[in-house]
Description:
Elements: H1 2-14, H2 25-34, H3 57-83
Helix pairs in contact: 1-2
Amino acid sequence: MLESDVNNMRAAFGRAAPELLATEYAREIWKMYEAGELGPESVLTGRCARDFSAPDVDAVLNQIEDERREAQARQRRREAADAA
């Protein structure tokens, strides 16, 4: 949603200032947020390097499966505690 909103503003303001159309503020803001570096005093440049590496789908699927197993174990413990 952040990316969509920021890019919509970029498109709107870009009609008056075409140089904004080449910026990547949304990606830059998100990258800074993920790194814990985003704050009220953060200086934005509008430039952000893209990561074109392939995602590790197997690792994601393994993580999902691990979380599913843990949720099932928690549910079994709750049911056992309720039955006691």
